[in-house]
Design a protein that fits this description.
A hairpin with a 5-residue loop joins strand 2 (90-93) and strand 3 (99-102). The protein has 2 domains: 3-116, Orthogonal Bundle (Arc Repressor Mutant, subunit A), CATH 1.10.10.10; 155-291, Endonuclease, Chain A, CATH 3.30.870.10. It is rod-shaped, with a radius of gyration of 40 Å. It is of the alpha+beta class and 293 residues long. Helix 8 (161-174) packs parallel to helix 9 (189-201). The chain is 56% helix and 16% strand.
Length: 293
């Protein structure tokens, strides 16, 4: 349960105790002790609880009178009274000497509850700020030991395109549902043609995005469509990221880049099972697919 809610319920009970116990002409010592304990439970100090109870049985008292009736050391009375006033439970009557008078329980406890709410709000705000700081301080540490992915876990690199084509063939042959191929003119079709045919005969859905209108791709497109593979045209767009995705769980891709003279060079191919990288590739494929014909 909410701490503030529990605290507010105590003040309601305490208000009831006062209305019953203090309405008696001579409240019993047991009643006073019970109420004093409940005052302590709602956050009053022992001196505050004792002084407040005494003020409820008198119209108003001086510091000296309070000290004599409660046993609170005289030098502590004024501090105690000022604290009770800050909590909205008593009034200080100006004069020499100053006198002190209790506020009626309903109003006093409403004041106290309001003050406590404000204190709790400040505490919560401070706690939120501290927790935010801790998140910043501990997040990197947590990621390092719990969720960080090493480069070796994220990617497997291949020394050249030859091994990449062999791995691509294995991916196609192991597919159960779907193969997505993102390429340019698909010059390496002959290296995976048998695997593609086998996959199609097994009922695997295959989609290929390529520059289908390029002169060197015309025959490849015809062969793909003959196998029941859907190929869409990317027109003259040059793809710098190309690859093969199998069943949305394994991806082999190659990143192409151009130097200042615009001479193409290829980075080493990479293989991954990382869901994040796979999602990026698939989202890009589906976006280009939707724009293609």
């Amino acid at each position: 349960m909410n701490k503030l809610w529990l605290w507010s319920q105590k003040t309601v009970i305490l208000e009831f105790r006062f209305s019953v116990g203090m309405s008696q002409a001579n409240p019993s010592k047991r009643d006073l002790l019970t109420i004093e304990q409940e005052l302590l439970e709602v956050g009053l100090t022992k001196y505050e609880a004792r002084a407040l109870l005494t003020l409820f049985t008198q119209r108003d008292l001086s510091a000296e009178e309070i000290s004599k009736q409660t046993g609170i050391p005289y030098p502590r009375v004024y501090d105690t009274m000022e604290d009770l006033e800050k909590k909205g439970l008593i009034e200080i009557i100006p004069g020499r000497p100053r006198r002190f008078m209790a506020i009626d329980p309903r109003t006093g406890f409403a004041n106290l509850l309001k003050i406590k709410k404000e204190e709790f709000d400040r505490e919560i705000k401070q706690l939120e700020e501290k927790l935010d700081q801790l998140v910043v301080s501990l997040n990197d540490l947590f990621l390092k030991y719990h969720t960080a992915i090493s480069p070796e876990d994220l990617l497997q690199t291949f020394p050249g395109l030859g091994q990449a084509e062999q791995t691509t063939t294995k991916l196609i042959l192991s597919a159960k549902r779907e193969v997505l191929i993102l390429t340019n003119v698909f010059l390496w079709y002959q290296h995976v043609s048998e695997a593609l045919q086998t996959a199609r005969e097994s009922g695997v859905s295959i989609r290929v995005l390529m520059n289908a209108k390029a002169k060197e791709a015309t025959e490849t497109v015809k062969k793909l469509r003959k196998l029941g593979i859907e190929a869409r045209n990317l027109e003259s767009r040059t793809l710098l990221a190309r690859g093969t995705l199998k069943d949305n769980d394994e991806l082999l891709f190659v990143i192409w880049a151009s130097d200042q003279d615009h001479q193409k060079r290829v980075y080493r191919p990479h293989y991954t099972q990382n869901p994040g990288l796979i999602e990026i590739f698939r989202n890009n494929f589906e976006f280009l697919w939707a724009q293609s014909k």
